[in-house]
Amino acid sequence: MPRTGRPTAPLALSDEERATLLRWARRAKSSQVLAMRAKIVLACADGLSNVEVAGKLAVHLSTVGKWRRRFLAERLDGMIDEQRPGRPPSITLDQVEQVVVDTLEQTPRDATHWSRASMAEKSGLSKSTIGRIWRDFGLKPHRTDTFKLSTDPQFIEKVVDVVGLYHHPPERAVVLCVDEKSQIQALDRSQPVLPMMPGMPERRTHDYYRNGITSLFAAFNIADGTVISELHRQHRATEFKQFLITIDNQVPAGLNVHLVCDNYGTHKTPAIRAWLARHPRFHMHFTPTGSSWINQVERWFGFLTDQKIRRGAHKSVQALEADIRDWIADWNTHPRPFIWTKTAEEILESLARFYSRISGTEH
Prior knowledge:
Helices cover 45% and strands 13% of the residues.
């Protein structure tokens, strides 16, 4: 006889509890943590088993069991994080909810974001209490990040194409991620850099002298991590064509060349198209507009910037270019390919969830 496991405790809601949970779950900008807990309890109250709730809401089975038990034991008060040992809390659940809602849905009259002091003044709670509430619900008003959603009408096709190259590169071919790091500045500090000492970090002046710019053309081989590179003082179609010639000379003649590029105008001029037509082993694959994250050479540019350029001091463009060449030569002595793990389907599903969340259409 199959095991059925421990029977699930039934969960019933009063009208007031259901109304409160629905308000928490449906608030478009509500804390995602509190909203998910409310959705779990509501689904349990509708008679679903823990397994059914976990599948419906895409959460772990143990999470459903935890919040079913917590609600049965503590009702609405159990929806916030467990109380720590010590004296009973001096604030109510409604006050906690109001702080979370105000943090997410309002801004101070005289500022772009809340501080602990301004939220404490508005709510009548202490600054330390505000800090604890924000910490419990993962709120960080002082921090900001950037994002950009591509508006490319061929976004899906391009993601599938490029990621398909990463996971299943063609036989007898090399896949190169190509781009330009343009206008790299040769900067020299106005005073000598003071070296790091015990108990004291390296120090440098905030001002600097500009000594010219250069542009780096790079092609990152996804198979072995080696890089073909070239430095030019400009980054026009003329220089890009010269770089294609360099790639053509360095890649063995028996291999096709698949280039992953962005949509920069110099990659699509009539002169470039004509050159590609005369070199049929070259195949261009364009990333979606505004999606540089999908081009692996951008990650490699990040290494170069962090390890050599950002904190470098160069009195001339020639000195900057010499440092870049040396760094690339060292990289190519022990190259490190990147491991691309996500499939195109996973990327598209993740972006769809993100879009639903920021547009308020998530259910």
